[in-house]
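Retry 2 of 3 after timeout on previous attempt. Resubmitting structure tokens to design endpoint.
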């Protein structure tokens, strides 16, 4: 699904110093009754953000003063593990996050994030430690620039982060694989006019196949 183009931004950030945050913690299973991608912000980290009686847990980082304005979540190691639920990404976007910083991401979570315009920024553990230290000392900000693939630290240092070139292109422009293919319709037509199809599923070709031998037992 196309998202809005990803523009560079400067923001405060929230530090969640927990390793192995799985998708059931990001959004508990009981909130997966919808296929709508919006409106899940209140469900994000619900069991951590609230006590058993539903009252807010003031100690949780997302409930701290200023957290609501943060657009970047700084997490521990191995963020987004567990199930493949895309709702986890929708919930984080619902909170207002546009980027998550971690030392590593679960593959499916990374794919879901990129498909929905949430940028997973993979950095060395020392970068996480520096961000956490800066947060404890004040309310620092970072700048996220996908065009240059840099995370500008509170002290001004630019930290490079990796991202596949195709994913970077799609997130930057707020498009998906289908949009890319549709934009290349003319090129596809030219290619097809110059190359014979290697595979055909037309009836006359399917009908020419030898019948399946009943003794095979398929």
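Retry 2 succeeded. Sequence:
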């Amino acid at each position: 699904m196309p998202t809005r183009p990803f523009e560079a931004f400067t923001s405060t950030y929230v530090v969640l110093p927990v390793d192995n945050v799985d998708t059931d913690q990001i959004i508990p299973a009981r909130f997966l009754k919808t296929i709508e991608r919006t409106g899940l912000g209140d469900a994000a980290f619900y069991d951590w953000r609230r006590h058993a009686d539903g009252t807010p847990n003031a100690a949780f980082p997302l409930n701290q003063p200023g957290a609501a304005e943060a657009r970047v979540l700084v997490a521990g190691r191995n963020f987004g593990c567990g199930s493949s639920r895309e709702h986890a990404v929708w919930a984080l976007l619902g909170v207002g996050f546009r980027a998550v910083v971690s030392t590593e991401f679960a593959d499916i979570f990374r794919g879901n994030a990129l498909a929905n315009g949430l940028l997973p920024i993979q950095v060395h553990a020392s970068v996480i430690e520096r961000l956490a230290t800066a947060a404890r000392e004040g309310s620092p900000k970072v700048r996220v620039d996908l065009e240059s693939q840099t995370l500008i630290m509170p002290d001004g240092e630019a930290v490079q982060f990796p991202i596949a070139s195709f994913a970077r292109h799609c997130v930057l422009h707020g498009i998906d694989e289908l949009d890319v293919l549709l934009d290349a319709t003319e090129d596809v037509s030219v290619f097809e006019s110059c190359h014979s199809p290697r595979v055909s599923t037309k009836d006359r070709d399917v009908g020419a196949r030898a019948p399946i031998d009943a003794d095979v037992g398929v």
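Attempt log closed. The longest strand covers residues 9-16.
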